[in-house]
């Protein structure tokens, strides 16, 4: 069943969402692809890129996919259970991404994922 609340947003960080260092955690993504998934206990992901650049491909659970190049100041949000973000950073590059304290950036290298059709 499709989730009517599924949504993907790429935008500059609004000033009222600028993170307080106590409320957000930094994660370094370097030379790999990182996949993150929403879940029933955490149905949305919010990330802010503070350094570096790369590409994010966000896919909502209703099949909507958006791919954007991102850099410092980019806000990426995906909402809906079983939605995902795929972060890609070129070899030798590093991207630093902030996440709310309750949504630590995490995932697995895409090379270890097996997709079946």
How would you explain this protein's 3D organization?
This protein is an all-beta fold and 117 residues long. It is 0% helix and 50% strand. A five-stranded antiparallel sheet has the order 1-7-4-9-2, with no helix packed on it. It has a five-stranded antiparallel sheet with strand order 6-5-8-3-10, with no helix packed on it. Strand 5 (54-59) and strand 6 (65-70) form a beta hairpin. The protein starts with 6 loop residues before the first strand and ends in an 8-residue tail after the last strand.
Which bin fits the share of residues in helices? under 10%
Number of helices in the DSSP assignment: 0
Order of helices and strands: EEEEEEEEEE
Main beta sheet: strand number and arrangement?
5 strands, antiparallel
Q: What value does the Rg take, in angstroms? A: 14 Å
The first-to-last residue Cα distance is: 18 Å
Instruction: Output the structural class.
Output: mainly beta
Low-confidence stretches: 106-117
Strand content: over 45%
Shape: globular
How many strands appear in the DSSP assignment?
10
Widest beta sheet: strand line-up: 1-7-4-9-2
Mean pLDDT: 74
């Amino acid at each position: 069943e499709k989730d009517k609340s599924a949504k993907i947003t790429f935008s500059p960080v609004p000033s009222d969402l600028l993170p307080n260092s106590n409320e957000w955690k930094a994660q370094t993504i370097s030379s790999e692809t990182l996949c993150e998934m929403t879940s029933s206990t955490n149905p949305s992901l919010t990330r802010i890129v503070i350094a570096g650049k790369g590409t994010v491909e966000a896919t909502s659970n209703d099949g909507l996919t958006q791919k954007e190049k991102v850099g410092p100041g980019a806000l990426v949000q995906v909402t809906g259970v079983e939605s995902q973000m795929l972060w890609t950073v070129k070899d030798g590059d590093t991207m630093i991404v902030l996440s709310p304290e309750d949504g630590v950036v995490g995932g697995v290298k895409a090379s270890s994922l097996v997709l079946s059709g």
